[in-house]
Fold this sequence. Notes:
Blueprint: E1 7-12, E2 14-15, E3 20-21, E4 27-32, E5 51-53, E6 69-77, E7 81-90, E8 108-114, E9 122-128, E10 139-144, E11 158-163, E12 167-175, E13 188-200, E14 203-208, E15 223-228, E16 236-244, E17 250-257, E18 264-269, E19 272-278, E20 280-282, E21 285-292, E22 302-306, E23 309-314
Amino acid sequence: MGLKTVGFFVIPMLMIGAAVKGADDTPSFDIPKLSDMTIDGKGEDWGDKGFRVDALCDVAGKTRTPDNFNVNFKLGWNEKGLLVLVTVADDVALEPAEKVEDLWQGDSIEFFVATKRGSDQSYQVVVAPGRDPKKHELRSNISDYRKGTAKKEKLTIEAVRVVNDKGYVIEALLPWKNLGIEAKDGVELAFQLYANDADKENERYQALWYPKPDAHSDTNNTHTIRLSDTKTSPAVVAAAAGNYDGDGKAQIVIVSNDSFKGKSVTIKDGDKSVGDFKFEAEGGRAVVKATLPKPEKSYGTLTVMSGAESLCSIKIPEAK
């Protein structure tokens, strides 16, 4: 049974009506302003501050076991730039690239920043932690996708890492001057994060925050984030994927941490319920695998509900 194009959305824990969505129904997120932050890779000054993303999956909704590979990150901002703290558990350290242009082939984190979704003003940063016994130092590479006069400003970043026997932490500051952004309350920009895990050479797993890859060539494949002096969006605690199979039925996967095991969800198309499901334990996580009946026409934006809480919005690419 063949599968068609996949799409997924991250799941913020929020009450109905609290979600902020863009023109294409993708969620946008409020990022808080933080003070007295030091880029040292320790993350101690973050405490419980920052917008938090606790779950990522690949484009098919697949994850690795938490002991094998697990990623969470936080976002904040200050007058200098966008602040990012990434915490990774990884049981195998492998960073085989000899050239910095190839860092993405091994254990690494990728950041994409654009002035807005769909903009031609963007850049990409790949950071490898230097945890591999053969590669002891943090290495990074910046790719410049800015068009026109914006290229005059040299791209820079600040990044520090701390490694241990279970994984690593990368803390970064992505300067506003790179894209000429005037940072203030209410300003919106676009951001994407990939987390790469290689347990063998030429074999890479990639988890993404926004549902589609190729943010370097299409900045629509990013999330909108909004700078705020006072507000922080609810934490993202799960991720989901959806596709139409060869019979036209919708196949949906929802992934969260194991604390969701046994909890029930209802999937709705508008106000209409199209199925009730339950999180089951799988691979150290809680997973829902749902099959929805073939619709007369493609489903709209589906909402996953747990009681009165809206857990997820899933927009499946149209069946062909």
